[in-house]
Amino acid sequence: MLVNAAEMLKKAEAGHYGLGAFNTNNMEWTLAILQAAEEAKSPLIIQCTSGAAKWMGGFKMCSAMVNAGMEALGTTVPVALHLDHGSYEACFEAIEAGFTSIMYDGSHEETFQINLDRTKELVEIAHSKGISIEAEVGGIGGTEDGVTSNGELADPNECKQIADLGVDFLACGIGNIHGLYPANWAGLSFERLGEIKALTGDLPLVLHGGTGIPEDQIKKAISLGISKINVNTDLQVVFAAATREYIEAGKDQQGKGYDPRKLLKGGREAIVARTKELMEEFGSVNKA
Ligand code: 13P
User: Fold this and answer.
1) pLDDT digits (tens, 9 = 90+) for 152-176
2) So what's the pLDDT on residue 150?
3) Alpha-carbon distance 101 to 122, whole Å?
4) Residue 14, Ramachandran bin (φ over 0: left; ψ between -120 and 50: alpha; else beta)
5) Is 1 among the domain residues?
6) Residue 143 falls within a domain, yes or no?
7) How far is CA 81 from CA 8, 48, 51, 137, 277, in A?
8) Residue to mutate (ligand 1; options 228, 230, 239; most atoms within 8 A of CB)
9) Which residue has the higher pLDDT, 150 or 184?
10) 268 CA → ligand 1 middle, Å
11) Is the pLDDT of residue 149 over 60?
């Protein structure tokens, strides 16, 4: 049965280790991530954006797939199903569909006050249903424009105001960026992370854009209070590489190599292996 993510992240914060929050994109991803968590005996946050949910046929499909996957694999580790970067409306849809954790990303709202008001409302609704909630302060940059060389830095006082609303964990920009990091990236701002942590106490903090951050920076961020590390692109890259290798070797044209179970097998196995490697790096192995 799915659990919410509050307890597992509290434990991670107190125990000074990180928990990966892995984005699922389809059934292969879902089963591979569940398999990795079980083999690593790691608690798991499996998360889904609205866009990925749409691809899968909606939040209900995603929720049903994760639940059925856990049953099929005999999952024993705690698993939370989390909405990643939800709009105000998406939060209600995900709750309705059986997600046990939501992220309301109000960092792009017109004003900070709107982010504050909506987070407050959603904290009350989520908690009344036993669902954990993540909020965000200071947008996480992207590399789509090919120009960004560093992510935003969240305002520590805004973080404190959002933290005081009772959110279970908080995403704050500390120079991190979604997707692959540009060569001229300035790195994480540990100074800003320290300032935020000083004001937010034992609240677990979330690092978005976990792909491609050097291991020493990840470990330092965890030691300074990061408890949840979001990973999406990394698993996409290993899946694509394994699938490309299969096709470039001409295997899809040999025998029944076009069978999706053959075509996607290498990619699926690559996700399992990489997820376990990341769980090792974050320190969550054997913490279930
Ligand atoms: P990456 O795609 O950079 O790993 O970021 C994932 C993320 O932060 C999801 O919210």
Assistant:
1) 899 999 999 999 999 999 999 999 9
2) 66
3) 11
4) alpha
5) no
6) yes
7) 13, 8, 15, 22, 21
8) 230
9) 184
10) 19
11) no
DSSP bridge pairs for 230:
21
CA 128 to ligand 1 center in whole angstroms? 28
Q: Could you give the number of structural domains in the chain?
A: 1
Whole-number mean pLDDT of the chain? Answer: 95
- Percentage above 70 pLDDT, the chain: 96
Q: Which atom of ligand 1 is nearest to the CA of 233?
A: 2
Say yes or no to pLDDT of 99 above 50: yes
Ligand 1, residues at Cβ distance < 6 Å: 23, 84-85, 178-179, 208-211, 230-234
Q: Is residue 179 part of a domain?
A: yes
Give the span between the Cα atoms of 189 and 173, in whole angstroms.
9
Determine the Cα–Cα distance for residues 36 and 24; give it in Å rounded to an integer.
13
287 part of a folded domain:
no
84 in catalytic set: yes
Greater pLDDT, 105 or 150: 105
* Longest CA–CA separation in the chain, Å: 62
Give residue 112 CA to ligand 1 midpoint distance, Å: 23
Q: What is the CATH number of the domain that holds 67?
A: 3.20.20.70
Q: Domain span at residue 224? A: 6-282
pLDDT band at 146 (very low <50, low <70, confident <90, very high): very low
